[in-house]
Design goal:
alpha/beta; TIM Barrel; 9 helices; 9 strands; binds SN-glycerol-3-phosphate; binds magnesium ion
Amino acid sequence: MTLKLPRIIGHRGACAYAPENTLESILTAAEMGVEWVELDVKLTKDEIPIIFHDDTLERTTNGSGAVAETLYEDIRHLEAGSWFGESFSGIKIPTLEEALEVLVDHNLGLNLEIKPCPGREKVTAEAALDILSRVWDDHDRLLVSSFQHVSLEAAMDVATDWHRGLLLDCDNLPPSWKDLCDYLQCSTVNIGLTCTTRELVEDIIDYDKNVLVYTVNDPQDARRLQAWGVDTVFTDAPDLIQDAILTVH
Ligand code: G3P
Ligand code: MG
């Protein structure tokens, strides 16, 4: 399997234009001609994989409390669009299964970020990959990533040959990222824009891994990163970045 990364990945769909991690955000990205999207997955209390970023419900829904303490039956009634704009009111939090259906229908590739609530690193990866394995067969256009090494380890155990991406957090950059990458057999290293230096990019390229950078919303940054050899940028605003860079590899 050869990972066929696009130049641009729509971050949480196209979250500058629609509420993040919703079906509408995925559809907006598709309408812009984006080839892949990045989505965050975590588990409800009853271990249903949903597409959601935060550990708590307040910021992007009309609910409150911890996702890990809320049953899917309650999550599915929440409203996840009005915080972004009145025209999006009534939008729901999608399950991973619902999101995958839209991705397949629109022929989109996926970077699924395993975003476990604390203590659920292994089970989140296992539950998400179980669902993925039932519907996804294009492994050249699938990347499973995480900041959590335990989640990547679980992904490696259940789906050894699927491509994995090691996410690096600029506030907590592990000096041993090469060892982690080796151990977790990662195809890519995904780094934050604020700590992306030319030296780090070249180091990753020398290490024979693809380099992805999040989150790039300024066309000038996108052009600079592309010149340095970065393979792919995550962006909230795919239309702005598409116009700025060469979109073919
Ligand atoms: O996967 C890239 C990026 O999404 C990581 O950060 O917080 O936006 O999930 P975050
Ligand atoms: Mg993410």
